[in-house]
Amino acid sequence: MIQVCNLIKAYGDFVAVEDLSFDVQEGEIFAFLGPNGAGKTTTIKILTTLLKPTSGSVRLDARKRFGIVFQDPSLDDELTAYENMDFHGVLYKVPRKLRLERIESLLRLFELWDRRSDPVKQFSGGMKRRLEIARGLLHTPKIVFLDEPRSAWIPKPAISYGRTSRN
């Protein structure tokens, strides 16, 4: 699904990512662990094409969609939770009927269904984070990039991912 070989990202004399190589197979859960400034966010930005590497190669299975949940907030605070989800679904061309079903399912999973009509500016930081994660899953991506996912609330596992199953 993901192949990274000898990845380097430098900003002048400062090297943010130095000679990074790894492979992620379908169904695997892969995480970067490290202190602030270790290059985790930079690597995710390269993987999601938001940054170009200085050198090295990155290959994602081009047939697979990916979702991104950024470290920094990216919701429209003036829209409701439902409107944020719906707008995202339109951008990703999720068919209307499926979009409405997925929005309800995800807002329920992330315990936000009862707040779907509230403007996001009224949400706590944890609620906003849950909404961002729900939004990142709306278009059923095959790969999901979560930058600092534990910075707020994460639901109890209720679904299976790849080869992992939960009872």
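the 2nd protein, sequnce then structure:
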Amino acid sequence: MIAESDWSIPSGEVAAEHLLAFADPPTAIFAFNDNAAIGVLNAARRRGLRIPEDLSIVGFDDTFQATIVTPHLTTVRQPLAELGRMGVSLLTRLLVGQRLDARRIELSTTLVVRDSTGPVPSR
């Protein structure tokens, strides 16, 4: 199941409402950023769902907001400093006319497990 949203908390709420309205709603939602995940958290609470007992929520980016919401948000941390360095390096190479060999570059991420995820609920 996929629901579209932008980078904002309200848009994450709308997307979550769409997913949670299914006859057989998901037991977990992975949002593409922490703000959208916080929107999911808000929508789930309005429906009376318990996090993580009824619904697990995971965000992406490991922003400061992930640590100040309740429950604390499980999220994926990406290496922002390394991402920035790599971007500058690639841009610099292009500006001086060097050829880029790699069309795809992968940087490692880390799952930061906090309180918004748990075992799959029994139905």
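The CA atoms of residues 82 and 107 lie 8 Å apart. The longest strand covers residues 56-60.
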